[in-house]
Amino acid sequence: MAETSKWRIAVDGMGGDQAPAEIVAGAVEAAHHFPDVEIQLYGDESALRDHMPADLPTNLAVVHAPEKITSEDEPVKAIRQKKGSSMVMAARAVKSGQADAMLSAGNSGALLSSGLLIVGRMKGIERPAFMAALPNLSQPGDNWLLIDSGANSESKAKHLFQYAQMGQAYAEQVQGKSFARVALLNNGAEASKGTEVLKAAHQALSQNQAINFTGNIEARDVLSGQADVVVADGFTGNAVLKSIEGTASQVMKVVTDALKNGNLSTKLGGLLIKKQLKDTLKSMDYNQVGGALLFGVKAPVIKCHGTANAKNIFYAIQQAIQVLDVEVVPELATRFAEDFKREKAAQSEQDKGE
């Protein structure tokens, strides 16, 4: 099976609040939809098969993993001690070349550690980052990228600069955007705003012609489509991400409750705008955008939402395939390795001069 497969995607079948049922359902759907891709489902074989249909697709393989990493486990300790866990075994499959990408809805810290310590960091990348796709409300169906959305609580200016490079490459190569616009999340639009780190990052981004840097952007403007890529440190980015997800969830609930419980005129009005309302609510459904890509490691590692359902798993697998198809990860790995080599050479010359 693997010899004839276009790509091989390793899926952690035991990670997430709705595992293994929803993970299995999403993996099975993806296997049917992408017959030339091998889906490797890692987890307790008995538990996984309890949720599988009789007509299992031939391109879906079950790999028994007797252990599970929970949300309470300490990340680094867990991946070192639970070598038989579904997450660790999936990561090791990627490292050994048995799989081309992996995804999990499990413990975020453990997945980050698996990416760094097992899959491996790209040479030249100091801090890999999570990158999430979020809705552009001014253009339904379009998404913008938030990087870092939670991997690193603190970042240096150099890290933010690298996030911009990674985000722009993804927006252009995976999303098909021409010369994607990059903005820096800050507490004001002026270049003088923010911490010393943000000011230094702003200056570095402004001076690089290869990056289409549009300046600072405030949190209130990120959903309006003013930027294709928004760069932030992981603490701020994660707070923005959670705020958007929470607001979207509540808005959807308020609107649907109002239409369901309203009077006749409210329900008639709802019917008149049914298509537009459906499209708007659909654009706010994070289950349809896959997961957060851990950018900066040697292969695609995708973090699905902790509450991921079958739809989210399906789209995350689709996302992994798209990333593999355009080869954005190996291209960036080559670019950053060359940058690292140049920096080392420059530092060596400087040391000689001293």
UniProtKB/TrEMBL annotation:
* Enzyme nomenclature, EC number: 2.3.1.274
Name residues in a coiled coil: none
The cellular location(s) given in this protein's UniProt record come to: Cytoplasm
Q: In which pathway does it act?
A: Lipid metabolism; phospholipid metabolism
What are the annotated GO cellular component locations? cytoplasm
Catalytic activity reads: a fatty acyl-[ACP] + phosphate = an acyl phosphate + holo-[ACP]
Q: What class of enzyme is it?
A: transferase
Coarse class of the primary localization is cytoplasm
Give one Pfam hit by family name. FA_synthesis
Q: GO biological process: what's one of them?
A: phospholipid biosynthetic process
- Which terms does the record give in the GO molecular function aspect? phosphate:acyl-[acyl carrier protein] acyltransferase activity
Keywords, in A-Z order? Acyltransferase, Cytoplasm, Lipid biosynthesis, Lipid metabolism, Phospholipid biosynthesis, Phospholipid metabolism, Transferase
> InterPro entries from the entry?
FA_synthesis (IPR003664), Phospholipid_synth_PlsX-like (IPR012281)
Q: What does this protein do?
A: Catalyzes the reversible formation of acyl-phosphate (acyl-PO(4)) from acyl-[acyl-carrier-protein] (acyl-ACP). This enzyme utilizes acyl-ACP as fatty acyl donor, but not acyl-CoA.
Q: Which family does it belong to?
A: Belongs to the PlsX family.
**Subunit structure of this chain's protein:** Homodimer. Probably interacts with PlsY.
Question: What name is this protein filed under?
Answer: Phosphate acyltransferase
Q: Which organism is it from?
A: Aerococcus kribbianus
Q: According to the entry, what is the taxonomic lineage of the organism?
A: Bacteria, Bacillati, Bacillota, Bacilli, Lactobacillales
